[in-house]
Specification:
single chain, 174 residues, alpha+beta, 14-stranded antiparallel beta barrel, 14 strands
C-alpha cells in the first residue's frame, strides 16, 4: 500500500509540474530572469502585467506602459520606450516581425528551429532544443549574455500570431 501511495504522489507532482510548465513563460540569462504565468487572457509576473485580447496587448512591462493593437499582420501602438509598428510576414514554418519596436528598428523571426533577430535594443540568437525551449545568446546595450533560455508555453503558442509576437516582443525588449 505504501508503494502505491508513493507512486500516486510522484505522478501527481509530475502532472502538476507539467501543467505549470505549459503556462510558464520564461526568459533567463546570467544577469536577467523573468518567469511569468500565462493564461489565454493575461501574462503576469512582477515584471509583466499584460492583458491579452484577440486584438490587443495592454498593461505594464518592466514598469512602463504597454498599449499594442495586435491584429492580422500588424502590431501597432506604444510602449514606455516609444512607438511600435511591426508588420508580420508569415511563412509555412515561421513568422517574422519587421519594423520598429520602442522606436528602434526591429526584425525578429520565430520558427520551430530558432528565434533570431532584434527587438528594441536587444539582439537574440536562440536555437530550439525542444518544441517550446530555445537556448543561445542575447546582446542588450552592448552587453552579450550567454547562455540565454526562452521557454514559450503551450498557452502562448496557441495564441493568434500577432498577439504571440507582440507579447514575446515586449518580453524580449528589455
Amino acid at each position: 500500500m505504501k508503494t502505491v501511495r508513493i507512486v500516486a504522489a510522484s505522478l501527481l507532482v509530475g502532472t502538476l509540474a507539467f501543467a505549470r510548465s505549459e503556462k510558464r513563460l520564461e526568459l533567463s540569462a546570467p544577469a536577467f530572469n523573468v518567469t511569468a504565468e500565462v493564461t489565454p487572457r493575461n501574462i503576469s509576473s512582477p515584471e509583466l502585467q499584460l492583458d491579452l485580447s484577440p486584438s490587443a496587448v495592454r498593461g505594464q512591462a518592466y514598469g512602463q506602459p504597454v498599449d499594442l493593437k495586435a491584429a492580422g499582420s500588424r502590431i501597432q501602438g506604444r510602449t514606455g520606450k516609444g512607438p511600435v509598428d511591426l508588420k508580420l510576414q508569415k511563412e509555412p514554418e515561421s513568422v517574422a516581425a519587421n519594423g520598429t519596436f520602442g522606436g528602434k528598428p526591429s526584425h525578429l523571426t520565430l520558427s520551430p528551429e530558432e528565434l533570431i533577430g532584434n527587438v528594441g535594443a536587444c539582439s537574440y540568437d536562440l536555437i530550439a532544443h525542444d518544441k517550446h525551449e530555445y537556448i543561445g545568446w542575447r546582446e542588450c546595450a552592448d552587453r552579450r549574455e550567454s547562455p540565454v533560455k526562452l521557454i514559450i508555453p503551450e498557452t502562448l503558442d496557441r495564441a493568434p500570431e500577432a498577439q504571440r509576437i507582440a507579447a514575446l516582443s515586449v518580453l524580449l525588449s528589455n
